[in-house]
Amino acid sequence: MLSYQHIYHAGNLADVHKHALLAWMLAYMTEKDKPMSYLETHAGRGLYQLDAPEAVKTGEAAAGISLSDAQGWFGKEHPYSKALGVVRETHGEAAYAGSPLIAAHGLRPQDRLHLAELHPKEFAALDWVMASFPARCYQQNGFDMALSVAPPVPRRGLMLIDPSYEIKSDYDTIPGFIARVHRKWNVGVVVLWYPILSNGLHKGMLGALTAQTLPKVLHHEVRFAPARPGHGMIGSGLFIVNGPYGVEAQAEHLSRVIS
């Protein structure tokens, strides 16, 4: 249940897909002076070193963020590039920002972050990484945290749902969870990441999500070759509710550079 550690997969193509769009959405939302909240259900440790043995072992970052850097998928002024640049300046060239740090570097002092992580070691690392930001870290089930906080204060905001899916019941839980969150927080931007799997395990969840009546839904997927022989993930998906204006164009750019 608590075996997953994202260091093995940090900086892969799914991270590039998810983090680039997340960084852009937060940058757009912070153009207004009004404060906002950021909630994340499965935060991980927040900071990864891509020269760590675990990351080198899988080689997923080489086909992800390293390829993106080499080919210039994002300009220097893109919010994703800016966040990664700050993290590398602070923590070294091999550093990679997880979504909590992507969000923290895109938000302002008046904004608030609520980050859940259940794994004890990952939580301890997250708590240390986020100590200098206006963040509250919770060592608890992320779905429970989100339902207890929503609607947050400030009410404007974004929630990222990014489980590892090592608990297979997550596929059945998530559609109902998103419906409950939306009922409590109908102005919130809700972003779900999911893996596209060769075994099709994600398809039932998507069917249940698309059957719901939710506003301004963007369903975006990118496909890519397996990271290694036998690896089951062949793409990355995002299901976004209440997405900000312009997010479709950003998604189209990701389709061009990744797929």
Question: What this model shows, in words?
Answer:
With 259 residues, the chain is of the alpha/beta class. The protein contains ten helices and nine strands. The strands form two sheets. Strands 5-4-1-6-7-9-8 form a seven-stranded mixed beta sheet, sandwiched between helices. A two-stranded antiparallel sheet has the order 2-3. Helix 1 packs antiparallel against helix 10 (247-258), helix 4 (79-91) crosses helix 5 and helix 8 runs parallel beside helix 9. The radius of gyration is 17 Å and the shape is globular.
Query: Sheet bearing the most strands, described?
Result: 7 strands, mixed
Low-confidence stretches: none
Can you count the beta strands? 9
What fraction strand? 15-25%
Distance between the termini: 32 Å
What is the residue-averaged pLDDT? 95
SSE pattern, N- to C-terminal: HEEHHHEHEHEHEHEHEEH
Radius of gyration (Å): 17 Å
Structural class: alpha/beta
Tell me the strand order in the biggest sheet. 5-4-1-6-7-9-8
Q: Number of helical segments?
A: 10
Principal-axis shape: globular
Q: Bin the helical content.
A: 40-55%
